[in-house]
């Protein structure tokens, strides 16, 4: 079983990795934009493909940013001494859940309720 200090170290590494990936995405994005500006009469298909690529990249970037925010939150909880406690009910989060998802901020019960509420709202 991993202890909390190990999970914390893992989260810090994960955060560094995420920053690298986000940076790579940004670097890859620039040539795409320059090319678009440079060829105002590009074919429609090319444009559609670029738009698709851009959308994919934005979705990927959003996913990375969301995970990054969760990890940042978990690290802050660790500093505050509340890591491993549910944000909603304050009860300890299941150990197995933390090992699978070290940045989890809700226990399984609260997470399930949140998911249900979100579905009900839509
Ligand atoms: Zn809870």
Q: Indicate the low-confidence ranges by residue numbers.
A: none
Percentage of β-strand residues: under 5%
Task: Give the C-alpha Rg.
Answer: 20 Å
Class based on secondary structure composition and strand pairing = mainly alpha
E-strand count: 0
- Overall mean pLDDT score? 88
Query: Helix tally?
Result: 4
The unique ligands bound to this protein are:
zinc ion
Care to describe what's here?
The protein has 122 residues and is mostly helical. 75% of the residues lie in helices and 0% in strands. It contains 4 helices and no strands. Helix 1 (4-38) runs antiparallel to helix 2. Zinc ion binds at residues 86, 88-89, 91, 106-107, 109-110.
Can you tag this structure with a few keywords?
single chain; 122 residues; 4 helices
């Amino acid at each position: 079983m991993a202890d909390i200090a190990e999970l914390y170290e893992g989260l810090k590494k994960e955060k560094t990795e995420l920053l690298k990936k986000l940076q790579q995405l940004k670097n890859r994005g620039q040539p795409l934009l320059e090319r678009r500006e440079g060829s105002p009469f590009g074919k429609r298909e090319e444009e559609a493909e670029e738009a698709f690529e851009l959308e994919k990249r934005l979705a990927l970037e959003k996913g990375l940013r969301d995970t990054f925010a969760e990890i940042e939150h978990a690290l802050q909880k660790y500093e505050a001494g509340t890591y491993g406690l549910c944000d909603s009910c304050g009860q300890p989060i299941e150990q197995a859940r933390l090992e699978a998802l070290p940045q989890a901020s809700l226990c399984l019960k609260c997470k399930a309720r949140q998911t249900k509420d979100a579905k009900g709202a839509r």
